[in-house]
Write a structure and sequence with these properties.
Blueprint: H1 31-39, E1 48-52, H2 59-72, E2 77-81, H3 82-85, E3 101-105, H4 114-129, E4 133-138, H5 150-155, E5 160-163, H6 169-182, H7 189-198, H8 203-220, H9 226-233
Parallel strand pairs: 1-4, 1-5, 2-3, 3-4
C-alpha cells in the first residue's frame, strides 16, 4: 500500500491496518456491500462506490480491507483518511489517479473547504479518465455532508451508494467470536456475550478490548473466562 512517501511534506503515516481485512469482518446485514467491494475488480463490477454510516459501523475497516484485497490481486492502492489530511494542502491528491484504487475515508472532514472540494473534483475526473477505481466513505449520505461545489456533489453519487448498517447484538457476538478465532484466542459464546454486556457498544471499542484481554490472558497464562475478565477489568 502507498504511504504517501513521494510527498515529502507529508510526514504522517497513512498505512492501512494489517488486521483490517475482509476475513476479519463479520458482514451480517452488510454482505451485499462486501460483495460489491470485491466485485469492483470483475468485468461487471462498479468502479465507484460510496459507503456511509455512523462512527463504529466499519466503513474505515471496509475501505482498508478493499485496499488489502486489491493488493492481493496485484493492484496498487492508496488509503487516504481525509480527517487526518485536512490540515495539509489538497496537493497531496496530485497524481493519485495513477494508482488503480483510491480509497478516500471520512470525506465529510473536507466538505465546505473550497480548496479541498476543487482538488477532489479534479481527482475524480482524472480517475474516471484513467478508468480507475474509487472508494469513498463518509458519516452521511452524499447529499448531507455539506459539500458546496455542485460539480463535486454530483460526482459523489457517480456509482453505487451503500449505507453500512450497525450490527445487532447477536451479530456483535458472532463478530467478536470471529475476531477472537482469527487471533487464535479460544473464547466461548458465553464469554463473548458477557463482554458485550459490559464493554463498549461500538465494534472498534469491542475489538480493542478483545486485544487488551488477549494480551492479559497471555501474560497471566490464564484462559479467557468470565471470572478472569471481571478481575482484569474491575467489572
Amino acid at each position: 500500500m502507498q504511504t504517501m512517501d513521494h510527498h515529502q511534506q507529508l510526514t504522517l503515516s497513512v498505512a492501512v491496518r494489517d488486521d483490517a481485512r475482509f476475513a476479519n469482518y463479520y458482514a451480517g446485514p452488510n454482505e451485499q456491500i462486501v460483495q460489491a467491494l470485491q466485485q469492483q475488480w470483475t468485468v461487471h463490477g462498479e468502479p465507484y462506490l460510496y459507503l456511509w454510516g455512523a462512527p463504529g459501523v466499519g466503513c474505515s475497516h471496509l475501505l482498508q480491507a478493499s485496499c488489502h484485497y486489491a493488493e492481493g490481486l496485484g493492484h496498487q492502492s492508496v488509503y487516504l483518511p481525509l480527517d487526518e489530511l485536512v490540515e495539509y494542502s489538497p496537493a497531496v491528491l496530485d497524481a493519485m489517479e495513477q494508482l488503480p484504487l483510491v480509497a478516500l475515508d471520512n470525506i465529510q472532514a473536507v466538505a465546505g473547504r473550497p480548496d479541498w472540494e476543487e482538488g477532489l473534483f479534479h481527482l475524480f475526473n482524472r480517475i474516471r479518465d484513467r478508468q480507475g477505481h474509487l472508494l469513498i466513505a463518509a458519516s452521511q449520505a452524499p447529499g448531507h455532508i455539506g459539500v458546496q461545489l455542485p460539480d463535486l456533489s454530483s460526482r459523489l453519487s457517480w456509482g453505487m451508494v451503500y449505507q453500512v448498517e450497525p450490527l445487532e447484538d447477536n451479530d456483535k457476538v458472532l463478530a467478536l467470536l470471529l475476531r477472537a478465532k482469527r487471533r487464535g484466542l479460544n473464547m466461548s459464546d458465553e464469554v463473548a456475550r458477557f463482554i458485550l454486556t459490559r464493554g463498549p457498544r461500538d465494534m472498534q471499542g469491542l475489538f480493542d478490548l478483545l486485544e487488551t484481554l488477549d494480551q492479559a490472558s497471555l501474560s497471566a497464562q490464564r484462559k479467557l473466562t468470565i471470572p478472569f475478565i471481571k478481575a482484569e477489568m474491575g467489572w
